[in-house]
Amino acid sequence: MTAIPFLDLKAPHAELRDALDGAYRRVMDSGWYLLGREVETFEQEFATYCGVRHCIGVGNGLDALHLILRAMDIGAGDEVIVPSNTYIATWLAVSYAGACPVPVEPDETTFNIDPGRLEAAITSRTKAILAVHLYGQPADMDSINTVAQKHGLQVIEDAAQAHGARYKGQRTGSLGDAAGFSFYPGKNLGAIGDGGAVTTNDDGIADRLRVLRNYGSKVKYCNEVKGYNSRLDELQAAFLRVKLTCLDKWNSRRTAIAALYLEALADTGLSLPHVPDWIDPVWHLFVVRVEDRKQLTDNFDKQEIGWLIHYPLPPHLQDAYRDLGIPANAFPIARQLAQDNISLPMGPHLTHAQATIVAKVCRDTFPVLRGL
Ligand SMILES: *Cc1c(COP(=O)(O)O)cnc(C)c1O
Q1: Quick check: CB of 196 below 6 Å from ligand 1?
Q2: Between the CA of residue 177 and those of 153, 193, 235, 291, what are the distances in Å?
Q3: pLDDT by residue for the chain (372 residues), tens digit each?
């Protein structure tokens, strides 16, 4: 029996060892470790990759989203619409800015924010919609942008899970007014440590971001605003430049694993992710819904197959957000998803043989409906 990891974080670095070692030596020998040539070059390369004019490297994904809101002058007294089912960082970015997160339920088949529910959540205080491309599937951006335009709202993408995904042929990061990316090691494009970036076509937002990330200063010791210290460092940028060259290849390996799962599990009791045909997801996670989750996790544990739950408790039910006073029975879709979702092993270095074993355990756990 061979253990199957949920995600192998070492394998990508083994594949690129020489290039990463070279990047490390180049930075170490340069004598310049923050806001230098590597970050500038990575910013250009990632902007080109996403199909936008600007990329601004920052310290992490949460800062990327927070600083976008600051750059848009969104803060105390303002409301920002967020998905009810997302990683808590999406909400925290809004809270950091001093604004109030206003949750909207997802579409149950795509897991992404349901555009049909947006208008009911808009008030005179609403300033922006912060949409998440959850699990690597782009949200329905045309519908979101249409509602936003009608009400004069900004649109921000939380693209932390969707590097390289496309919506109607266009890359995430280019689908709203600004987008926040995370380069947390487990993301599709991951650093060897923390990192993040903002992408935008808006010259003003880009300009303000560059000032905000570096103590509010464009010229050393000249501080225009009360800024932050949130910089992508040279070493991580150098590593990211190496790994960016493999992003498409690694995303297509994820797509092949997803295709294997979708095919092998089509006739089981598992509820599989729905992919609308106008999007090309990048399968950051492969999340299924299952009635008896415990039965499946027990069998995965027995076979030493890695699994995770994304996420076990939605933000509005976390102690951290008790102050919002949201009733426990609000947002039933987010609550239900937290009860019945499970993420199968997924990553560019998961082999087809391993994925086949994972699928077999799923099939053995749940009766195949064919022929009944
Ligand atoms: C990872 C993640 C973030 C935060 O990124 P960090 O780099 O960890 O700060 C934000 N939103 C979503 C949806 C994420 O998955």
Answers
A1: yes
A2: 10, 27, 29, 39
A3: 569 999 999 999 999 999 999 999 999 999 999 999 999 999 999 999 999 999 999 999 999 999 999 999 999 999 999 999 999 999 999 999 999 999 999 999 999 999 999 999 999 999 999 999 999 999 999 999 999 999 999 999 999 999 999 999 999 999 999 999 999 999 999 999 999 999 999 999 999 999 999 999 988 899 999 999 999 999 999 999 999 999 999 999 999 999 999 999 998 889 999 999 999 999 999 999 998 999 999 999 999 999 999 999 999 999 999 999 999 899 999 999 999 999 999 999 999 999 999 999 999 998 665 444
Pairwise CA distance, residues 52 & 200, whole Å: 6
83 lines ligand 1 (CB under 6 A): no
CB-CB contact of 186 with 34 (8 Å): no
Least Cα distance to 287 among 303, 302, 267, 265 occurs for 265
| Residue of minimum CA distance from atom 12 in ligand 1 | 160
Question: Does the Cβ of 162 fall within 6 Å of ligand 1?
Answer: no
Say if ligand 1 is within 6 A of residue 182 CB.
yes
Q: State the closest ligand 1 atom to the C-alpha of 62, by its place in the atom list counted from 1.
A: 9
